[in-house]
Amino acid sequence: MEAGAYGAGKAGGAFDPQTFLRQPHTILRMVSWLFSIVVFGSIVNEGYVNKPNEMEEYCIYNRNQNACNYGVTVGVLAFLSCLLYLALDVYFPQISSVKDRKKAVLSDIGVSGFWAFLWFVSFCFLADQWRVSKREDNPLNEGADAARAAIAFSFFSIFTWGCLTYLAFRRLGEITFQEEYNTLFPSSPPVLP
């Protein structure tokens, strides 16, 4: 990642997809996006089961509809959040104001930290409901792999979103440095002797 000036000095350049895709926060955001798809996809596809003699389907996590609803909701909203912040990451080099960049990074810190917390809650909730699930509620063991996958990827998402929070803090430090630099050394024409 290239260190250096933020703000007007870098704004307005052409978008380089190769550089964009190599940035750590872009890679982590895409991984988080993929993890959210796995979580909500596995719950939606195989998270509802029924006994052979029943017609109504129940959530695989201890027949607790709230567990499935929470997993799907967090997964879908994290998916949309990833898309939103990927778009912001594409637009970020075009933002010329240091203050606007700082606002974007502060929102990234808040949102990433919030999602790390929500994924922690999701992992704990799904794992606990899976732990107390009764064997007789799912005698054919249908969807067990999908349920474990949702739990595992909820756990992995805690770390990807936590790393995104850390990278946003680092980016904030770089922007704050640039803001201080601009305050101390305002742009003025060089004085020639």
From TrEMBL:
Residues annotated as transmembrane: 30-49, 69-92, 104-126, 146-169
Protein's membrane topology: Multi-pass membrane protein
Domain of life where this protein originates: Eukaryota
Cited PROSITE patterns: MARVEL (PS51225)
GO CC annotation: neuromuscular junction; synaptic vesicle membrane
Residues of the MARVEL domain: 20-173
Location (main, coarse): membrane
Keywords of the record: Membrane, Transmembrane, Transmembrane helix
Keyword Oxidoreductase applies: no
Family classification: Belongs to the synaptogyrin family.
Stated name of the protein: MARVEL domain-containing protein
Organism name: Phrynocephalus forsythii
